[in-house]
Hints:
Layout: E1 27-31, E2 38-42, E3 55-59, E4 61-63, E5 67-72, E6 78-86, E7 91-97, E8 107-110, E9 121-128, E10 134-140, H1 144-151, E11 177-180, H2 192-200, E12 204-210, E13 233-237, H3 239-250, E14 255-258, H4 260-269, E15 279-283, E16 298-302, H5 309-318, H6 320-332, E17 343-346
Parallel strand pairs: 1-17, 3-12, 3-14, 4-11, 14-16
Antiparallel strand pairs: 1-2, 5-6, 5-8, 6-7, 7-10, 8-9, 9-10, 12-13, 13-15, 16-17
Amino acid sequence: MKTSDYDYELPQELIAQDPLEVRSDSRLMVLSRENGDVELDSFSHIGSYLRPGDVLVLNDTKVIPARLFGTKQETGAKVELLLLKRITEHEWETLVKPGKKCRSGSFLNFGTPDDKGRFPLTAEIVDVMEDGNRRVHFYYEGVFEEHLSALGEMPLPPYIHKKLEDGRRYNTVYAKNDGSAAAPTAGLHFTEELLKELEEMGVEIVRVTLHVGLGTFRPVKAEDLTQHHMHKESYLVTEEAAERINAAKQEGRRVICVGTTSCRTVESAARKNGRVCAGSAETDIFIYPGYEFRIMDGLITNFHLPESTLIMLVSAFAGRERVLAAYRRAVEERFRFFSFGDAMLVI
């Protein structure tokens, strides 16, 4: 299978730069897995395509202000640090730019120094990892999260060039557990009112957690896509979530994942017998055509980058030709693409 098989033409002006004023005002494309038929609607009408007893799986991870801008202590040169994964209380796996001059033993300063020249946050690079990421140890007084809130910025994807005025718009309304470097963007379309409306019609809401890491930012570089390796991401499925998903599968009710991260979570936690196992672990699952889904019966997702692991996952679920045809239709209809763009329901 070739990575180039998942390319498509996308006019740059269709890449959404801002979130809509009302989250659920985004457009919705409904793609039939059975015959490839496409229907166009508004996301606010998502309930029309769901039914009582459906289980809607949400990823309740929360994006932290993980991008820090500072200076190299030795030279004063500007540096950028992206927090990817917490390792211990004071140590993180990070992405550093520029990386070549930030070797082990380097110190980075963030914020404004006090009258004694002390910075509120300092990072020491303690290890250069195999993939080029840096393991850093932070030095500070007080609470780390408070420093991060004061000094950090939301880590918007590189294709968004406008500054986000309200950082809350890069989180879902149900975001709860801190730890992501990117948003599970399919969930950005939901409002609290819409979720309540769905529950009142009998849709069951189940929450899982997968902290989105570097894999979201890293393109597939191998032409043979089977040679691509995903970065590991931490996930959690509670006993309650597992029981409710398993009950739905046993009773023949549909499990609909909100976003590729929710899909990767439940499929990672699934056993060969088709049951989800509760617990916390790391996953590097890479879903592409040929994969046999054990849990997911429907998917709410956004429109993804060409040649990305995300469009490959959607193609594994609905078929490459049908997905690419739907994307061509979305371009014709002037849908908005990527993180702040419109939504697709595959069912």
